[in-house]
Amino acid sequence: MPGSDIGIDLGTATILITIRGKGIVLNEPTVVAVDKGTNHILAIGTEAQKMLGRTPGNIEAVRPLRDGVISNYDLTEQLVRYFIRKVGAHLLFKPVIMICVPSLITEVEERAVVDAAMQAGARRVYLIEEPKAAAIGAGIDITSPCGHMVVDIGGGTTDIAVITLNDIAVSTSVKVAGDKFNEAVIRHFRKRHSILIGERTAEEIKIRIGCVTPREQTISMPVKGRCLLTGLPKMLEITSDEIMEALVEPAGIIYEAIHWVLERTPPELVGDISTGGIVMTGGGSLLCGLDRYISKRTGIKAIVADDPVTCVAKGTGKALESHGQLQDGLLYISRNKKMHQ
Q: Which fold has domain 145-176+254-308?
């Protein structure tokens, strides 16, 4: 039943689901709230995210994926099953599921993703590498002999790849992305101000005033946290220039990974990239000034794709529409071996 075939962008921070012929039908956080005493799941997705950092001792709000891979198999399986049912993929007709994975995923991690999807009710599972899905979703013609560089900055990993003729020529994946930017903000407050802030506050700071190159006009916001010296609440007014100091370090690691890929890319493809630019996708690419930072350090124009958050999911949906080709091992099956029955 083709209408039930679904594509899943199973990210560290967010899960996006597409249904063949319908487009993106779900976008929710990959968070699960669990009663630690009974292991009973209390909430999944948006409702569970509201509990992050606010739960009593017996309730834990957790992310079952860390750094782009499954860290808690059972919770991931239940999370995937829950969302498959939520989007109405009827389990009487088991769906074909295509899932995005980081480009350097190991065989063990790969099997964990496939098993979770099969246990959640899939008839067949395909895996597609995130940079390839991101390129398709950004509107790049990956079938051409021209080289394209894609930098997909998600929640847990940044995947960088040079794609040509339907395949990845050079790629790498680093576990530095949106979550590491948040951690850098938390560390900054602890070291500079002796104040402890939570993940949600760090995320808000990053979105509202975060940057990695100076803004045209410095902006600020009030931040509340707990003073590590007194144990009492404390409020500070923080500027974008100060937050930039914290965010430049993880941005530098992403640049080094891009540099590593460029060094190993054939000169003809580097020439193509110099002309076409570096395409940035994923929610992390929206960090203010990150495109300018990469452009300045590489000397190649960096372009943030239209609606970068959904590029991977859209690319998965387009790949799913090539279902017939996939069964013949064409085009989108990662490394020509990622079909599981």
A: Nucleotidyltransferase; domain 5 (3.30.420)
